From TrEMBL:
It is found in: Cytoplasm. The keyword Cytoplasm applies. This is PF03932 family protein CutC. It comes from Paenibacillus chungangensis. The gene is cutC. Its main location: cytoplasm. Gene3D superfamilies: Copper homeostasis (CutC) domain. It comes from the Bacteria.
Length: 231
């Protein structure tokens, strides 16, 4: 089981790694759902611990639809993340029809060649997630899909997550990472019900359950204790 923790500071990275996290999703602008962090923050985060740091590539919070100017910014941000030593990127791109934007996705994947790639919760805005997963499965460079199984918290969408996990296994597609609404008390049950191989934590791994505070060592240790053997 892979445990991923959202970090917004280098201290978050160090604390999460020491407590047993396997991977970091690094973001800024968490109040807006997570935006691209600065070059300085990426560099400091990478240096803060030995675990992989995957960087959010999201230039604005208006939508997951990106015009040419947006995409040029994203391509440059991928270059910056690579140069700073990031292990991977986190992206999600939709078109005006609310489907996966294949052309934009392919541009990002080409720029991120050799890096770890997560398709984020833009996936949860799709009307047909099964069809979306089939599309993403065509791109072997995509390692995983972060999803709650829809717009509700992941623990409320276990049937959908189980369907996605089973479909991904059939397709040989990206791994399904359950996230949104997970904490040390409900994650193990979600994994039991869905079979997802990776779990993602935001405020559920924070002191007082809030991004106003740092990563909670005891929460991450409790999460990690459910899966003592790392994948």
């Amino acid at each position: 089981m892979i445990v991923e923790i959202i970090a917004i500071t280098p201290d978050d990275v160090a604390v999460a790694a020491a407590a047993g996290a396997d991977r970091i999703e690094l973001v800024s602008g968490i109040a807006e759902g997570g935006l691209t962090p600065s070059a300085g923050l990426i560099e400091a985060a990478v240096q803060a611990a030995a675990i992989p740091v995957n960087v959010m590539i999201r230039p604005h919070s208006q939508s997951f639809r990106y015009n040419e100017a947006d995409q040029l910014v994203m391509l440059r941000d991928i270059e910056v993340a690579r140069a700073a030593g990031a292990a991977g990127i986190v992206i999600g791109l939709l078109n005006d029809e609310g489907e996966i934007d294949r052309a934009a996705l392919e541009r990002m994947l080409a720029a991120a060649s050799g890096m770890d790639v997560t398709f984020h919760r833009a996936f949860d805005e799709l009307q047909d997630q099964a069809d979306g997963l089939r599309v993403l499965s065509e791109y072997k460079a995509i390692s995983r899909v972060l999803t709650a199984g829809g717009l509700r918290p992941a623990p409320e969408s276990c049937d959908q997550l189980r369907m996605l996990q089973e479909l991904s296994a059939q397709l040989g597609g990206p791994r399904i990472m359950g996230g949104y609404g997970l904490n040390a008390d409900n994650a193990a049950e979600l994994v039991k019900k869905t079979g997802v191989p990776e779990v993602h934590f935001g405020s559920g791994a924070r002191l007082n359950g809030s991004f106003q505070y740092g990563v909670d060592v005891s929460a991450v240790e409790r999460i990690r204790s459910n899966w003592p053997m790392r994948a």
